[in-house]
Amino acid sequence: MSTTGRISVTAENIFPIIKKFLYSDHEIFLRELISNAVDATTKLKTLASIGEFKGELGDLTIQVKIDSNKKTITISDRGVGMTADEIRRYINEVAFSGAEEFVNKYKDKAGDAGIIGHFGLGFYSAFMVADKVEIYTKSWTQSPEEEGTHWECTGSPDFVMKPTPRTDRGTDIVLHISDDSTEFLEDYRIRDLLKKYCRFLPVPIQFGTKEITEKDEKGKEVKKTVPDIVNNPNPAWIKKPADLTHEDYMAFYRELYPLTFEEPLFYIHLNVDYPFNLTGILYFPRIKPMMEPTRNKIQLYQNQVFVTDSLEGVVPEFLTLLHGVIDSRDIPLNVSRSYLQSDANVKKISAHITKKVADKLEEMFKNNRADFEQKWNDVKIFIEYGMLSEEKFYERARKFALFPTTEGKYYTLDELRKNLMDIHTDKDGQLVLLYTSDKEAQHSYIQKANNAGYTVLVLDSPLTSHLINRLEYSQDEKLRFARVDAGPLDQLIPKKDSAKLSILSQKQKDDLRDIVAKAVDKEKFSVRVEDLSSSDEPIIITQPEFMRRMKEMNMMSGGFYGSGNLPESYDLIVNANHPIAQRILDTTDTDKRQQLIQHCTELAMLHQNLLKGEALSNFIHRSIQMLSQQ
């Protein structure tokens, strides 16, 4: 007997709302419908496990088929199916969730049974891409002789429901694709969506067939056509860590990122049942110091259904540099499962992940420091980023964050304080840590510092300026960082009673400053005369530590610090105790004096990699001429 009726909705325009606004992306219709099929299958398996269903489960594979001629997509399952009454309850009454009712009914016997759906609106996502949807279904509770039910709707509140011949339990959903959504009739498009949203669903999903090569009994290779199962129902993260080998973790990493050829450095297996549910595997990729790290590589799942790879709010920002999978049914989602909502559970999960990461790093540092030191260049960006962005991680990371030296040794901050306090303390009792950002470019400065007994750190990551600022302002004791080429050593680490005797009188130094200032670019150089060692260069060019840091931080933060438009300015230090200083004063020939100052200045600029282009070409040409005249 045919039945007509009207879907029970609270607004006449419910379908336009669903089609345009309820879901952020139309492509998720496939995820929602297959999730429903998985729920139906999971319910049947649950009923069988508790003795309610006593029949044969048989093949439970979900089928996805395209008929481009009829312009249809069909999703079929052999799950619990529905009676006509259940269609009235779960389909005709919008937002009545059969999944939620099932969980509530059987939770004492089977927990939540891994049921995905909760909102009861997933089915209606079909109308985002279809102008007509049909359901052919039969419940597991019906006898073989009973008919199934056919339901049909064209995207309006009106529907038609009638009996239909059907022998087997389960449900077929047939979408008649609308003219503006025909892209979903392409095999490659559906395959991509299945790979994106359904690759780890817990029930096998078949999409067409594929040809494989096998060996027969005689060892001869033969081709065979088999069902193409597009998902892995048993991914590594749902298994116990004790059941997995290192090779299993690496194989899963390659499954997640087939185009990544480098293996991760190490991994963390998350497995928490209380006070929240959280499983997953996080991998630490190799992050090169001068490369832009790739974000959005962690995939969020809920009961093995892909939700998003944009995890802002679920994990701290620095952890978005990691790769892997997080699965939790305790992360609340809005109705479309497309955006995360911040609540107490999310914050607890985020804090737990941060703690597990810090635990892993500290464990590696303590158990095998030599190996940790070898990995340092690959993980330092990640750790430094965490120290800058997460206070709790900063406190933990102080124990294992390393500071390499130019001599290839590695120290923690506490070890540096203990080992270097005596020689690296300035006249004010402040520990001064010298560092280089480029061992090759700053080689001569490093050599001078080493010859004077100082240790030079290698801090060459893009985050160096931010990190040393953070460390300087966060220490209880006095601490200062100075780049090794930021000035003469006596000024970088001034000592008590370190004043040097001056060969020149004060008047001569004043005259020398005025002469040099007239000969150089006043907008670029601030000239001063210092009593340095006679072994130091006649002219030294430095950039104030503060200004250089501001510019470096500005480059990293996209202009946030407001120093992007500041002109380049440097300190030009004339060594009053160098013999050339006296020559500049004694030379009466203005042209020769100008040439002497220019040559010494350009040598200093060359030392700081500031001499480029035409100026460098002219310097080389003039130097060759000077050598030829000798």
UniProtKB/TrEMBL annotation:
The entry's keywords: ATP-binding, Chaperone, Cytoplasm, Nucleotide-binding, Stress response
Lineage: Bacteria, Pseudomonadati, Bacteroidota, Flavobacteriia, Flavobacteriales
Pfam families listed in its UniProt record: HATPase_c_3 (PF13589), HSP90 (PF00183)
Homology family: Belongs to the heat shock protein 90 family.
The UniProt record lists the keyword ATP-binding: yes
InterPro entries: HATPase_C_sf, Heat_shock_protein_90_CS, HSP90_C, Hsp90_fam, Hsp90_N, Ribosomal_Su5_D2-typ_SF
Gene3D superfamilies with a match to the protein in the record: 3.30.230.80, 3.40.50.11260, Heat shock protein 90, C-terminal domain, Histidine kinase-like ATPase, C-terminal domain
Protein's recorded name: Chaperone protein HtpG
Gene Ontology terms, MF aspect: ATP binding; ATP hydrolysis activity; ATP-dependent protein folding chaperone; unfolded protein binding
NCBIfam families on file: PRK05218.1
Residues engaged in binding ATP: E32, N36, D77, M82, S97, G98, T171, R337
